[in-house]
Amino acid sequence: MIEVIPFRGLLYNLDNTGPLDALIAPPYDIISPNQQEILYQKHPNNIIRLILGKEFETDTNKDNRYTRSAKFFKEWINKEVLKKDDKPGLYVYIQEYEVEGKIIIRIGFFARVKIEDFNEGNIFPHEFTLSKAKTDRKKLLQACHANFSPIFGLYSDKDGKIDYHLKQAIKSEPLSVINDEEVTHKVWRLNNHKKIQIICDIIQDKKIYIADGHHRYETALAFAKENEETIPDCSHVMMFLANMDSEGMSIFPIHRILKSPNPFDREVFLKRAKEYFEIIPWNTEVSELEIKSRLIEFGKDRIIFCAYMGKDHTYTLMVNDPRNILPLLDQNESRDLQNLDVMQLHAIIFREIFKIDTRKKECQNFIDYKVNANEAIASVDTGDYDIAFFMNPIPIEEVRRLAGMGIRLPQKATFFYPKLLSGLVLNKFE
Fold it and tell me: What is the rounded CA–CA span in Å between residue 256 and residue 260?
């Protein structure tokens, strides 16, 4: 069973800080160096100083981004920049946004969830993780003993029972309303004991699928195993939980940009790719809209990618036979992965043709990830990368099916939109 419990959230004290929109930030892993600087300048108490502090050449083991985060955190609590709620509760969180002209509302709640190994069969990952990111998050957790950003978890509730009870809680005025990059974020405090108990009772028999925050969950799990005897509170981690069966789920693809480890030859690549793909050159201008249109059109009954290798060199790659991937899979990789475009891309193009295995640390610098197609195109045009690969999104049903079978996708396989803001609610270990 899943143990989901209320908690005394640590919230910004707006009487001492001013409006919340100057204090929040996106998840740390999508913040660029330029955006980091903007957030630093936005407000002296912006959450960026906790989740992604600056690094300096003079950093030492005793003075670094993690120790400075811990120092800021302690100071902000002492000065009541951050203030803990008097009694435990859940925190209802709504995101309202627009996709292709349609207004979508995603509702869920912040709670603490008992950490457990994936092999217990209650909490499921859906992606592999990168060791560098886990090391980074572990150092932050060790320094601060707190969760600054929520892990995004999904559960199945076809009848919408939990959503019904959450909606009862949002009839009052919200604690905060933030308009951030075309998304409206609203948070309410739910501290009605009866309602909390109903929600926790319903969800305890469900499964949780991690949508975002794999690195933080695995880090929290490792930290709990090492410290739960001395820091009992660390056995729970802060999560945002939402119903995957609601209409508020939007999954975007994460495109790939590749820098060849060896001098790149376009014709050599196309020749090798013809062994696995039907290749159709474009005769139109490349744009985000055109890419999406072709992916939808040709991807109805085949696995496809769009490959951009500079002006006048754009191609649609259609998989000839998904089974061709099978000899390229490792023994521990499920044959059920053959029908996933992201796996076809990683196994055939990255591993087989370019000899880039993104599971290995030494290969990870050759690949970068972009949600925005125009940014991917620009990375090739500047010469920083050789090829941009564009894909269709993975359906939520497929994510659930594979995760429930214990099958993980390559890292950065899905982008759940919109991202959860950091700084709305914090969880400090007692």
Answer: 13
